């Protein structure tokens, strides 16, 4: 059995169709099908089911997928240890994160990291806390950073900090001349907000019920870039955590005012690693660097 067949199967397991897997692998769908057939012959069982909505794993396929992910991860780790023995830090660091934490935390650390280890590549996935946790548990991510990581025995929180929520608005917004903003004042203006599976929305909805008012939700989107664009156009307010140290807004047309609220005053940012899975040297170094940046916000 060839390693290629296992890698192709692993990609199929993470895809909705053979064509999608083939595109990610830069090969033809026929080449993918051939490798899957070799595996099915080797194990004497069907591994995938084809249907009108694409492919899905059989029960036997799911068992193999779990083993393959662990095996490939270990092989990649060995490859990087061999490279390390030759004084080269290489490989790929897979990161899963809340989108709003990429700019203040992940991007600066990657910039610093690549100056020291230019051979390392990075894959970054963004989403809700639940999505981030699932990526780390499944092996799709090596390290994770999000707000209020769901408790799970397979995850370990290594570092955390608490950031203050601020209200972002255009420079000519009616509230822009204030020194701080309350949630009640926010509720009197249109807002852009992420879907209900995001922590900031859950906090806002809980606070509004507690205080007896409703928000004027004009825009719902998980894209932070879209939220900021709407805010710069003066169409909405958004609530985002901002750094406690070196808080520099990345848009000249936005200002950030402190949000005064007992429930939403601060939000917890947590850095996580898999509890029982070995990580590569590149991941270990990256984790140590981002851990230092997170801890700097606690002083």
TrEMBL record:
It holds the Pfam family HTH_1. Keywords: DNA-binding, Transcription, Transcription regulation. The keyword Transcription applies. The keyword Transcription regulation applies. Residues 1-58 form the HTH lysR-type domain. It comes from the Bacteria. InterPro entries: HTH-type_LysR_regulators, LysR_HTH_N, LysR_subst-bd, WH-like_DNA-bd_sf, WH_DNA-bd_sf. GO terms for molecular function: DNA binding; DNA-binding transcription factor activity. SUPFAM superfamilies: Periplasmic binding protein-like II, Winged helix' DNA-binding domain. Transmembrane segments: none annotated. GO terms for cellular component: cytosol. Belongs to the LysR transcriptional regulatory family. This is LysR family transcriptional regulator.
